[in-house]
Amino acid sequence: MLVAAVAALLAAGAAACGTPDRPAAVPATDRPSTAASPVATPTVQPPRLDVRKFGQLHTTDGRTLPLTGIGGSERVTRTPAGWLFAGTKGDTLLLRPDGTVLELHLPEEVAVSADGQSVAWTAAGKVTVARLTTGGLRDRVSTPVPAKTRAVTWIGHRVVLAQAYAPWCCGSDHLQHDVWDPAKGPFVARWTRGIAPVYGPLPDGAAGAGLVQKNSKEEFGAGCLARLDGVRDMSVTKRTCLPGLTWTSNWGLSSPTGRHLAEAGDDESIVLADLAGHKMVGNCPASQPLAWEDDTNLLAETAEGKLVRCTVGKSGADAVPDVVLDAASDQALVPRIGVV
């Protein structure tokens, strides 16, 4: 479940430097004025995402909508059909563009496809997928799944499943992964172990992506970027050990097109990677990736609790102004899936 902590949506742009007095008009034949031209200060962009604040949604187009019935997890995700958010009953609701709220009768944990138009969830020993529309859920397809199995993300139109198979550290479990294509009938298990985490959602045409251990003798150690089959099963087809990656990190976020990955590194920095080329495309001085604004710009939090913008292909980070990142502010960025 993707949880983003942070941010206030404030007016964009920094004030320009003062403009000198306008000189009196002179005939064209006279000597031109030598008055200095005003120099504009660089514009620092506020977050280009919606923001949840005190039970309300503040959108990038200037609207304020009530999140009626929002629950304690305060998770909100924007999709083409509206905003999915967790309700007080441990369910998932849809805030539609017209401001009305629709009960979807879904559990709190749902996986959204990369185009934002489909959801998958687990209930009563089954995984179910459906199209998400402003009118509700359409075209449901279900399959029985083994115990302790849940839908975690998508690769194109296929659903990535995870199953707990053994207890692990700190109250969590070891997971094995597989993929189910609803168009091809019931799920047939071909589990793959050792991937932690699996990234997504990823669009059609993209290979699966995750992290595997660099050294199997280390319980917590360096991780390697893994390309996964993602069609027949989740077997590893390629691995590249980029510096800074840590196996079992749960902070990684794939960009909207699935081209880039942002993952928390091992030295209070964020590794930016090209998923297709399996190469680094940036290193950002921040500790936690929060949400992608587009395919090249990522909002992240520093160790000091400041919000910054990381950009693919650019070193360093740009400050995002006037944003409070403490719990008392009760504010959070709203990631978007399938929405430009």
UniProtKB/TrEMBL annotation:
<dbReference type="InterPro" id="IPR011044">
    <property type="entry name" value="Quino_amine_DH_bsu"/>
</dbReference>
<feature type="compositionally biased region" description="Polar residues">
    <location>
        <begin position="31"/>
        <end position="43"/>
    </location>
</feature>
<feature type="region of interest" description="Disordered">
    <location>
        <begin position="18"/>
        <end position="46"/>
    </location>
</feature>
<feature type="signal peptide">
    <location>
        <begin position="1"/>
        <end position="16"/>
    </location>
</feature>
<protein>
    <submittedName>
        <fullName>Uncharacterized protein</fullName>
    </submittedName>
</protein>
<keyword id="KW-0732">Signal</keyword>
